[in-house]
Amino acid sequence: MSEERILDLRGLKCPLPVMKTRKAMARLAPGARLVVETTDPMAAIDIPHFCNEAGHRLLARDLEAGVGRFVIEKG
């Protein structure tokens, strides 16, 4: 069973959501999951790009009601 944590980054603007996501992912074990919640519209581009570059898997993304929710599995 994999570990899952929630990172609430609502209210932060670019580049802080990606920077804080990177820092949180560094502390997790491979296979652990991080749920990132953010209101920054650029996160819809930045978070998937970060996952691709860092070797993590973006398992799900939900962009409803002004809040982006991304489920990331550490690679």
TrEMBL record:
PROSITE patterns cross-referenced by the UniProt entry: UPF0033
**Residue stretches making up the UPF0033 domain:** 7-31
Instruction: Check the record and name the InterPro entries matching this protein.
Output: TusA-like, TusA-like_sf
| GO MF, one example | transferase activity
Q: Which domain of life is it from?
A: Bacteria
Keywords assigned = Transferase
User: Looking at the Swiss-Prot or TrEMBL record, what is one Pfam family this protein matches?
Assistant: TusA
The answer, when asked if Nucleotide-binding is one of the entry's keywords, is no
Q: Which family does it belong to?
A: Belongs to the sulfur carrier protein TusA family.
The name this protein carries in UniProt is Putative Sulfurtransferase TusA-like protein
